[in-house]
Amino acid sequence: MDNQGNILVVDDDAEIRNLVAEYLTQHGYHVSTARDGAALHRVLETDRPDLVVLDLMLPGEDGLSLCRDLRATSNLPVIVLTARREEIDRIIGIEMGADDYLGKPFNPRELLARIKSVLRRARALPVSPRHVRRLRFAGWTLDCIARHLVDPEGVIVPLSGAQYRLLATFLHHPESVLDRDKLVDLTLGREATPFDRSIDVQVSRLRQLLHDSGREPRIIKTVRNGGYVLAAAVEQLDE
After folding, report:
1. pLDDT for 6-43, tens place per residue?
2. How far is it, in rounded angstroms, from Cα 159 to Cα 168?
3. What gap in Å lies between CA 37 and CA 178, rounded to an integer?
4. Of 139, 140, 147, 161, which is the most buried if we count CB atoms within 10 A?
5. CB 34 within 8 Å of CB 87
6. Separation in Å, CA 44 to CA 34, 40, 75
């Protein structure tokens, strides 16, 4: 079976680590494991995972802190796996840069489906040349490594995983009309339903971040019966 990808599972519960590793291995993935943040960093020094499954409740440095650090130094996809089911934990995890969130106890098949979905989104997202770290547009700058925005005054604006994917998609297709089906697939990892307006909500929130949410937006414009278009010019900046 061909290698479907390299997955790093970080969980202090040895039973869960072994269960997930065995299940993913059976489905064609190469799996590394770590019990805490220190072990995670050791793996990253020698291995190149395509995705991290990260538990929040870890000894020492917790999962949210590790997720924030990963997001500050890479664009490595992260799925948060935790026993904490409160809505605020899910929101914080996404705000820290997690790409998805799954509560314990979980069905391994659901975890596998989410891994496939996140990897598909990550691989579908156009990749900038290695020397391009930042994309500048309309006075704003997107840092493609740290996955955050910098506003025209130099203030850092955090992005959720979905917001980053949506904005990066627009920036890689400037002045091109992107329909809702394509945007839903890239940012939410699923097909759009006939009455699905979730991408409109995402675009609205992104416009608010860019201070572009007036009656006539200047940066992301709506194309009637077509979708959306990034109307600003995009400049690639070297590191």
Report:
1. 999 999 999 999 999 999 999 999 999 999 999 999 99
2. 11
3. 39
4. 161
5. no
6. 10, 6, 13
Spatial separation of the C-alpha atoms in residues 229 and 103, rounded to whole Å: 36
CA distance 203 to 217: 11
What confidence tens digit (pLDDT) does each residue in 124-149 have?
A: 655 444 445 789 999 999 988 777 89
How many CB atoms within 10 Å of residue 18?
Answer: 14
CA 214, distance to chain mean position in Å, is 27
Of 157, 123, 164, nearest in space to 140 by CA:
157
- Residue 31 host element (H or E): strand 29-34
What is residue 234's three-state secondary structure? strand
CA distance 51 to 3: 13
Which amino acid does the sequence have at 81?
A: L
Q: Which residue has the tokens 């307006």?
A: 197
